Amino acid sequence: LTGDFKAILEPGPVLLVLTHEDQVTDKSKIQQVSDKLEELLETRHHPVIDRLVKPKASKPEASPLIFFPINNNSGENGLKHESVRNLFEALQCVVRNSTTVKMRIKPPLRYFQDSVVSLSKPKSALSADFTLALQSAPTLETALQEVRGARDVVNYCKLEDLRKLFSACVGRKVYSTDDPQFRQCVEFLHVQGIVTHFNTPTLDNLVILSPKWMIDTITTIIRSPELHPLSDQFDKKLKNKLKLPYNKLYKQGTLHTSLAAEML
How would you write the pLDDT of the chain (264 residues) with one tens digit per residue? Predict the structure, then answer.
């Protein structure tokens, strides 16, 4: 499997997206923010600077922005709005030039990838082809059932759980989560955005199977209560019940475990 991954494990393109462009009355401020952000990235020699995909300049003489400003009032016909259309076209271009899209995936990795993806979906949403394939792979089906347990949707699991799935997919005993091929496959899924795996000692055994769930969870806490209220009643309840931790979070950026438990 090693040869399949070398090209695509290289860092890919990055698109920065800033929302609520419609709330900025002075559009020159957008360019100022872009210039400042670019200056900061260049000053810090941040590796992402060379991988940024920038939108087309609105005018020939204008400097290109470093991010895609998105109008949140574009409604159902979002693609008709210039800001959304520019982002969509940039994404299409990235996909067309993607090594990943053009690559052929060997069956064992494909089974592993499909198995991991299946866990983040309700059983009722699994494709007929995948369900049929499981019938001829009892070892894999058993491994999936063990990981899923009583959960209909698995948003996160242990790295050890994925090891069991991988072992069933490749048809050999994988005794450790340090197995080189297994690690490479997990890194592949992480790079593709299929899972999120923090390759650090404290979080190594945690794998997020639904990146959307992780983002929703994080933005439940890291948000502007004025711009993104969970609900008027919920925020009011938090302020009354945990006034000090609530104020510390949104005024000082300090999160207390008691508040996190209430919010999640």
Answer: 444 555 555 667 889 998 888 888 898 899 899 999 999 989 988 888 888 888 877 666 667 889 999 887 766 655 567 888 888 888 888 888 877 667 676 777 888 888 898 998 888 887 777 776 776 677 888 888 899 988 999 999 999 999 999 998 888 889 999 998 899 889 888 887 889 998 788 999 999 999 888 888 888 888 877 777 777 677 777 777 888 888 888 888 888 888 877 776
Q: Are 174 and 113 in contact (CB under 8 A)?
A: no
- Structural contact between residues 209 and 119, judged by C-beta atoms closer than 8 angstroms: yes
Report the half-sphere exposure of 233 (CA within 13 A, side-chain side).
0
DSSP secondary structure letter of residue 196: E
How is residue 240 written in tokens? 């009354």
Q: What is the 3-state secondary structure (H, E, C) of 39-50?
A: HHHHHCCCHHHH
